[in-house]
Fold:
Amino acid sequence: MQQNERNTALYEAILRLNSLDECIRFFDDLCAVTELRTMEQRYAVAGCLLQGKVRRETGASSATVSRVNRMLNYGTGSVAESVREDLAAQGVTADTKE
Structure:
């Protein structure tokens, strides 16, 4: 495999997971606690930013907020779409600007 090729086996394994519990256990095995908390925090910060606020309770650094904001503005849009769906399911309105 070339250096810039993406190995899709991990992503295919994630797609085969059947439940939230199975997904949590999979990522608990795969990632360090700090890696999981970092991803969870970024997802939470994305939700705050899409609502037009930054929630201080996340404990996110300004670097994390900046990184997430950059991802929301210049990334693929996949995380933003997922967060918007989660917010809508909770009855929360997200900023709709793309």
Q: What stands out?
A: The chain has a mean pLDDT of 89.
